Amino acid sequence: MHHHHHPCNRKPITVSSLLFFFLYLNLHSPQTIEARNPSQFTINPSQPDVVTIPEIKRHLHRFGYLQRSNDSKSDAILFEKALARYQKNLGLPITGKPDSDTLSHIRLPRCGFPDYVESKTTAFHAGQKYVYFPGKPRWTRDSPLKLTYAFSQENLTPYLTPAQIRRVFRRAFGKWASVIPVSFVETEDYVFADIKIGFFAGDHGDGEPFDGVLGVLAHTFSPENGRLHLDNAETWAVDFDEQKSSVAVDLESVAVHEIGHVLGLAHSSVKDAAMYPTLKPRSKKVDLNIDDVVGVQSLYGTNPNFTLSALLASETSTNLADGTMMIRPQGLIFSTLSTLLFLIFLDL
């Protein structure tokens, strides 16, 4: 549930808070430079760069953008509209054409869950990019909410030890638990666990077969299903210094994303968000973006120990450390000034 503070208990806005706010706004202003180099999205140098129209149509159909049509006259119009919706959902320039940016993203590895092409957020959240599943499902239990998770011991990856996998998921669950009043507890009882985690290959009985190396990396089902499946064909990694494969996939990045689905978030169009659908090989995205945080808190309320200023400070220091403060390929974090002011207000 959301916490409503009595007006008399609100902390005063300090000069330092305002300075921090405007510094952050300036660093994420529209002056940021978006990377538009298609070569940086290449999955595998040995693969051809050509993506055919039938392949694009299959991709758009697979992820919820394009319905099958036998009418050749309307087919071109539907294809253009589907491309435009895809571009909008992934935060790309909306051209309705299969341009280089769009083709680059179609070739990126991604989550197997379909994108919802129409926003399911309310008008109040119109400035945000996070999206819920239809019907806004969430886990409904007595408060405080505690969810158990377990690993299928028969379905693990050969690239990592069970201890490595457990550590990764403990960190990933901790990211979400730090912002909402939900705790995650590992159990050995896979059958009765709320969240069931396993690595599976090809057709594994849930109607959503995996497709081999890269392509779809993982998929999850909306609350309160709890199944979290990872493609066992992937070269899963926790340390790119140790795992040299050009198609290695960071397990923690995918785990953080899929847990967001487990909790009820669909895909975001914010490229910095954990809930953005694609992930390049040998890349990491393990931290929650403000879009992720506000989205999940709107479902479950706020962890009493969470503060927005701490998240902003952490994100700023991370960007400074990796040298991406002024040139940010992933694009803007916030969409409107009013959203920023509202978030600052919530933190008071």
Automatic annotation (TrEMBL):
Amino-acid positions noted as binding Ca(2+) 1 in the UniProt annotation, renumbered to this chain: E234
GO molecular function per UniProt: metalloendopeptidase activity; zinc ion binding
Residue ranges of every copy of the Peptidase metallopeptidase domain listed in the record: 135-302
UniProt: Zn(2+) 2 binding residues: C111, H257, H261, H267, M275
An annotated GO BP: extracellular matrix organization
Family: Belongs to the peptidase M10A family. Matrix metalloproteinases (MMPs) subfamily.
GO cellular component, one term: plasma membrane
Record-linked InterPro entries: M10A_MMP, MetalloPept_cat_dom_sf, Pept_M10_metallopeptidase, Pept_M10A, Peptidase_Metallo, Peptidoglycan-bd-like, PGBD-like_sf
Source organism of the structure: Eutrema salsugineum
Residues that, per the record, bind Ca(2+) 2: D194
Cofactor(s), names only, from the UniProt record: Zn(2+); Ca(2+)
Chief subcellular location: membrane
Annotated Zn(2+) 1 binding sites: H204, D206, H219, H229
Subcellular location: Cell membrane
Ligase as UniProt keyword: no
Sequence positions that bind Ca(2+) 3: D211, G212, D231, E234
Listed name of the protein: Peptidase metallopeptidase domain-containing protein
Cofactor note: Binds 2 Zn(2+) ions per subunit.
Catalytic residues identified in the record: E258
Range of residues in the leader sequence: 1-35
Annotated membrane topology: Lipid-anchor; GPI-anchor
Keywords: Calcium, Glycoprotein, GPI-anchor, Hydrolase, Lipoprotein, Membrane, Metal-binding, Metalloprotease, Protease, Signal, Zinc, Zymogen
PANTHER family recorded: MATRIX METALLOPROTEINASE, METALLOENDOPROTEINASE 4-MMP
Presence of the UniProt keyword Lipoprotein in the record: yes
Pfam families referenced in this protein's UniProt entry, alphabetically: Peptidase_M10 (PF00413), PG_binding_1 (PF01471)
